[in-house]
Amino acid sequence: MRDTLPTELETSAGDPRKALLQVAEAISLHRDLPALFRDLAQRLPAVAPFDFIGLVLHDPAKQVMKVHVLETVEALGVTNRLDGMEIPMEESASGWVWSHQQPLMIPSLADETRYKPGLGALRSIGVQSLCFCPLTTAMRRLGAIGFGSLRTSAFGDADVEFLNQVAKLVAVAVDNVLHHQALSDERDRLQLLLDVTESIASHRDLTRLLEDLAGRLPQLVPFDFIDAVLHDPATDKMRLWLLVTSEPSTLRPGLETPIEESPGGLVWKTQQPLTVHDVAQEARFPGLMTLFRENGVRAFCVVPLTTAHRRLGAMGFGSLQPRVYEKREIALMQQVAKQVAVALDNALNGETALTYQGQLTRERDRQRLLLEVNNAVVSHLDLDQLFPAVSACLRRVIQHDGSSLLLCNDETGQWRIHVLDFERNESFIEEGRIEESPRSPSCQAITTGQAAVFGENELREMADSSPMAQELLDFGAKSFCSLPLLSHNRTLGALNVCRRGEGGFSPEDVQLLAQVAQQVAIAVENALAFREIAALKDKLANEKVYLEEEIQTAYNFEEIVGDSRALKQVLKQVQTVATTDSTVLILGETGSGKELIARALHSLSDRRERTFVKLNCAAIPTGLLESELFGHEKGAFTGAIATKIGRFELADGGTIFLDEVGEIPLELQVKLLRVLQEQEFERLGSTRTIRVNVRVIAATNRDLGQMVEEHKFRSDLYYRLKVFPITVPPLRERAEDVPLLVRHFVQKFAARMKRRIETVPAEAMKALQAYSWPGNVRELENYIERAVILSSGSELFVSTAELKRAAPVGNGSATTLEDAEREHILKALRETNWVIGGDAGAAARLGMKRTTLQSKMQKLGIARPR
């Protein structure tokens, strides 16, 4: 059996499969990138030749590749740290990998003329050869992961292929950490806005308010002064009302400037933010720019001061150094200005203070909601735990009677409903139900990517074509709001909220729900990413366990031995069908080599690099066979203490070999037929459909056609399995192969027992060829093993008398092959006192499995005499 790893790595000091499993374990343990890469630097060198491991990410704003982490395998005494180094895309090897999405191997940095800035820095710390692999998830390109060595030509093609697999696992973790960092930044921003709201609520004096803000805001937005400029309707000019600065200034409150000559006037008029990155280069507003230059102001940003009722003016943030304001900084200033505007309007209009105080309280509650939702998103990676937490936060701020999520199942393409919360637990929506109507209320939000709000009349118009709309009306819903869950230009689903009351959802409600939906989308994406990591980790673990079991299994023989015409005809059939994905049914007596033919089919197919999974259907108790084939969820039945991955899921992308397929009970044959036809199934105890890409090879020593006539086997499954039947001839039909098999087994067992057997007597070989071998190759193998044990010299000892006594054909004691087989089995049963199983039982003596012998006894009508 072979998997996706190269041969060179399989013979290395470490186990690449175990290394990949450890990478998955490291990813699940670390959320901090430096810690993760330090861990990888300790785990991976056992299977990959590198001394340095680095993380380089693409910066879309600057169009450069930035070194984020650089770790060494051992204490190499490197003092020249490259963390934080930025390299232009066209001059960066990692930039080439990010652009082309292909690994890049540089055998010798000394001979490499491209990418001089980046490679020069690496040469300065002793790197001689280099390998970069792309860091890319299903959603986006992140950058590259680099592996450096102190030796030239350290990396081969096999190493690059292995490291590229590592990069695929690490990419999901890096994307996850970046999302986590973004969430942390968002949490800090929301906390700051909450502090601003509380500061506004606690300060009646606006000068003290601005002083307080000047102490709080530089944590996220660096600035040296803050001011408020208001429009004076009487003079139609902009008036500097408040100014807070850490440095002495000639600018004084009360300064008036015409609207067209003031940055604040332009912002008040257009209601758009204005940024000036370098005052020295600004030609507009000459009068104010002269004052700014005199006071050392080099850059500033102005945002509108506006409430829901009127435009007040503008709020400015200035810097004594040239700087470029980022979009997130401008957005934060705008949000601060909105809250300051409310407080400012309160101060200017005492009689409306209570109204605006309520608005400020609502804004504070909404900011607190977003902070709580953010905290829930950060602290809950499991969707089942996240949804109730989000719903509890939501209910405290926005009155609603029910909420739900509609999420897309990537495997089936179906939309599934997840209930969040309903008042008094009177949910009318079935948890996990499939939403099949393309005209459901959520469809508009998902299709357009915009919030969709429906009143009772709109729901009635949709009720004829949408069962969900009708159910909302039956529930008494008067208004319904659906918001898309958007992430990286794709729609994950929709957040739905409904009300029974008369009041609909206001634009402010919709805006707040849209912000909540953004955070829920991040949470859903994070949960899906962690679920992908967990699934990959489980798959690697199960493959590791299965492969270890395979390695420990003693096969009947290592290769197909024989030169007979019958065997060559079978091998020709194998060559013909191996390269296809068609189902193959291997027929033949027990011990004739059906499993070996199945392995040959897999080895010659395009799936040979993936897993070959086998299952003996007769060896598994009937009650556990379904779980073994399809897996089960935790708690699916008594004793199911953990989730189990079935053999079909384990064989995804590869081949599954179902031996003794005739032993599958009728009630399970229906599910097997579905997998063959649709390539999909559900685990026991689960409603989630799993799709796989598996080639099925089945084998049996029973007459399935006769079983179909006797209604013991489904005819539709029989014909679905019998796409390409291959009949393996019994050993008695290819007697010319017996000498080759005898020599093969003699060499095998003599080497194992450290004996030297050089010849096989001609009379013995003739007797071996004359014997019918009802147990086929397996019986011959066991017989030769016994002969080698009994041989004391260089000549194989074969008891020809024993073969002649046992021979069921040609001695006149039996008239048919069936009679001969019955007599042979009866003889073995008498000699073992009718003990079938165990080392000394009849099955072992005949060289066949216990279940196979029981099947033959039933077929031949053999029963123990009373």
UniProtKB/TrEMBL annotation:
<dbReference type="InterPro" id="IPR027417">
    <property type="entry name" value="P-loop_NTPase"/>
</dbReference>
<dbReference type="Pfam" id="PF13185">
    <property type="entry name" value="GAF_2"/>
</dbReference>
<protein>
    <submittedName>
        <fullName>Sigma-54 dependent transcriptional regulator (Modular protein)</fullName>
    </submittedName>
</protein>
<dbReference type="InterPro" id="IPR025943">
    <property type="entry name" value="Sigma_54_int_dom_ATP-bd_2"/>
</dbReference>
<dbReference type="InterPro" id="IPR002078">
    <property type="entry name" value="Sigma_54_int"/>
</dbReference>
<keyword id="KW-0805">Transcription regulation</keyword>
<keyword id="KW-0238">DNA-binding</keyword>
<dbReference type="InterPro" id="IPR002197">
    <property type="entry name" value="HTH_Fis"/>
</dbReference>
<dbReference type="GO" id="GO:0006355">
    <property type="term" value="P:regulation of DNA-templated transcription"/>
</dbReference>
<dbReference type="GO" id="GO:0043565">
    <property type="term" value="F:sequence-specific DNA binding"/>
</dbReference>
<keyword id="KW-0067">ATP-binding</keyword>
<dbReference type="Pfam" id="PF25601">
    <property type="entry name" value="AAA_lid_14"/>
</dbReference>
<dbReference type="GO" id="GO:0005524">
    <property type="term" value="F:ATP binding"/>
</dbReference>
<dbReference type="InterPro" id="IPR003018">
    <property type="entry name" value="GAF"/>
</dbReference>
<keyword id="KW-0547">Nucleotide-binding</keyword>
<keyword id="KW-0010">Activator</keyword>
<feature type="domain" description="Sigma-54 factor interaction">
    <location>
        <begin position="560"/>
        <end position="789"/>
    </location>
</feature>
<keyword id="KW-0804">Transcription</keyword>
<dbReference type="InterPro" id="IPR029016">
    <property type="entry name" value="GAF-like_dom_sf"/>
</dbReference>
<dbReference type="InterPro" id="IPR009057">
    <property type="entry name" value="Homeodomain-like_sf"/>
</dbReference>
<dbReference type="InterPro" id="IPR003593">
    <property type="entry name" value="AAA+_ATPase"/>
</dbReference>
<dbReference type="Pfam" id="PF00158">
    <property type="entry name" value="Sigma54_activat"/>
</dbReference>
<dbReference type="Pfam" id="PF02954">
    <property type="entry name" value="HTH_8"/>
</dbReference>
<dbReference type="Pfam" id="PF01590">
    <property type="entry name" value="GAF"/>
</dbReference>
<dbReference type="InterPro" id="IPR058031">
    <property type="entry name" value="AAA_lid_NorR"/>
</dbReference>
<dbReference type="InterPro" id="IPR025662">
    <property type="entry name" value="Sigma_54_int_dom_ATP-bd_1"/>
</dbReference>
<dbReference type="InterPro" id="IPR025944">
    <property type="entry name" value="Sigma_54_int_dom_CS"/>
</dbReference>
